[in-house]
């Protein structure tokens, strides 16, 4: 086994580099032994060299490829007769170019003799490269014609390419329909027009528009044209009522046919999707009743517009309330008179009583309560009574009649006389007594025979000796005469 001699990590050899030779004076030491063991061999020959040469047979621009690995001038060195491996050179096509390159690398071999010899070996490159044609892209925007189509969403916008000029490419145009509408659609880029068809699988309208790439980057707009039709859609209205002494009718405004009737009712209408309809209830209070003081209570859906197909169905519209019976209260003095005037003149004081009657008047019945459920007894409150506040009521049986009357007391006119003519009355005995509703005989509008006001003076004249008043039927004063 041989062992080398080292200076640090470098072995000392005959032609060692960088250490150099080991010498004794000017003589190189060739070998050294320890006993029979060779520990130093400095007798090797000088290295031979193999230098790489590259033959480039690639056609086309040099910018189109890259040579790598072992390049021209690459050198391998070694002892004569020892072997070396093949050279390794690479060649690749650059981006933007197309082509094919093959490399025939210089093979391995043995270093030549004698030492110090240099030989050249060749690696051959063959093939061709060409610059690619330029490519371009189009920016496509797909829109809908908002004049004829106001719903739905167009699709297919994007960047298409890169492609070389003249290359055909396809744009998949789509249109997502809005709920409740059907469409008839086309798509055009200004040069080509296609029909869009409904794809039952995706639910979209679809079509493919073919285009050709130009000689520069470009943009284009594809417009979707056509018509939209609202799909007939049903909607239910439930009109409900909780009414007492009242009825209701319903109406649905803006339907294609008249939709109205008596409530409660459930009504189903069919109108184009999105149609605005307004349901409403109208209440009629029964005759003889008054609406609730705060009015009838309607649900918030009353007179509130809905959209068919958009607003959830059914829509419930309700009205509730209780109408109370309509009545008039009459309060009168309980002491009766012999006539209306007598009651108002002589009995308009003392105890009072309240009775009630409905919208048909007291002639249709008088009641003890304002619900008009308890009629008066036919034996109670009979006769003429002064009403508190004016006028009178004549109660007969269970019915009554409101009558006007003289309010307050009558004026007594003594020393008067009656006759059929003014002259005869003026010249009479002036021994009679009459009563009038005015402060003077001449200011009265009516003359009575007694202070009850029940018996008007007959047709004729009544005089106090100074003046005379002419009376018509019923004691009405129709003229005044100066005696």
What does this structure look like?
The chain is rod-shaped, with a radius of gyration of 65 Å. The protein has an eight-stranded mixed beta sheet, with no helix packed on it. A six-stranded antiparallel beta sheet has the order 40-39-38-41-42-43. A four-stranded mixed beta sheet has the order 9-7-14-12, with no helix packed on it. It folds into six domains: 6-41, no CATH class; 48-131, no CATH class; 135-230, no CATH class; 232-325; 328-403, no CATH class; 411-482, no CATH class. It is built from two helices and 43 strands. With 483 residues, the protein is mainly β.
**Total beta strand runs:** 43
Assembly context of the chains: single chain
> Average pLDDT across residues?
92
Instruction: Give the strand content.
Output: over 45%
Count of domain modules? 6
Q: How would a crystallographer describe the biggest sheet?
A: 8 strands, mixed
Share of helix, binned: under 10%
Q: Note poorly predicted spans.
A: 14-20
Work out the radius of gyration. Answer: 65 Å
Spatial order of strands in the largest sheet: 16-18-21-20-19-22-15-17
Number of helices: 2
Tell the overall outline. rod-shaped
What is the distance, rounded to the nearest whole angstrom, between the alpha carbons of the first and last residues? Answer: 189 Å
Structural category: mainly beta
Give the SSE layout.
Blueprint: E1 6-7, E2 10-11, E3 23-24, E4 27-28, E5 31-34, E6 37-41, E7 48-59, E8 65-69, E9 75-78, E10 83-84, E11 89-93, E12 97-104, E13 109-110, E14 118-131, E15 135-144, E16 153-155, E17 158-164, E18 168-176, E19 181-188, E20 193-198, E21 205-212, E22 218-230, E23 232-244, E24 246-253, E25 260-263, E26 265-272, E27 276-285, E28 289-290, E29 297-298, E30 306-307, E31 315-322, E32 324-325, E33 328-333, H1 340-346, E34 352-357, E35 383-386, E36 392-396, E37 399-403, E38 411-419, H2 422-426, E39 432-436, E40 447-448, E41 460-463, E42 467-471, E43 477-482
Parallel strand pairs: 7-14, 15-22, 23-31
Antiparallel strand pairs: 1-2, 3-4, 5-6, 7-9, 8-11, 10-13, 12-14, 15-17, 16-18, 18-21, 19-20, 19-22, 20-21, 23-26, 24-25, 24-27, 27-30, 28-32, 29-31, 33-34, 35-36, 36-37, 38-39, 38-41, 39-40, 41-42, 42-43
